[in-house]
Amino acid sequence: MSFKKMPSLTAATLLLALAVAPAAPQPARAAGSLASCRAIGDATQRLACYDALAAAAANVPAAPPAAIANAAPATPAVPEDPTARFGKEKLPRTEEQQAKDDAEQDEEMHSTVASAVALPYRLFAVTLANGQTWVSKEALTFDPKPGDEVRVMHGLFGSYSMVVGRSRPAKATRVS
């Protein structure tokens, strides 16, 4: 018998009974189990509780808690050098990365010139010792030479000022 030939009340009742009845108790049990796992203080026991819930949901046997306790700990992440991320907020990135970088941003960065390329109108592309490349948006008063000290500071409205050696501050932008 097809659904088209069944009376509409009977078809709706059948669909409701098949779709809702078996699934109704499950979320309530899962929510209660998740809350009980969340309340566990020890990290390995909490993980074992979550693994048991996931295994029960997928009908897969869970790993014993002893196997989880004997597992090798994860290696901690190596923190990034603060000068390596200076000016990085202008490079393309995700919103999560932007929020994280903005919270950790320093006010200025110091480095030395590794190389410099002259551009028209006394503008320069300056590669620093830390690998960053900055391009001046204003003319520099002195030509940058390898080994010269560089100071890059935050300016207004997300801009940057770069001081190379004895030159006056010039607006700059990071390109890599």
Automatic annotation (TrEMBL):
Signal peptide range in chain numbering: 1-30
Sequence ranges of Basic and acidic residues compositional bias: 82-102
Disordered: annotated span: 73-108
UniProt keyword annotations, A-Z: Signal
Entry annotated with the keyword Signal: yes
Protein name according to UniProt: Type IV pilus biogenesis protein PilP
Origin species: Nitrospirillum amazonense
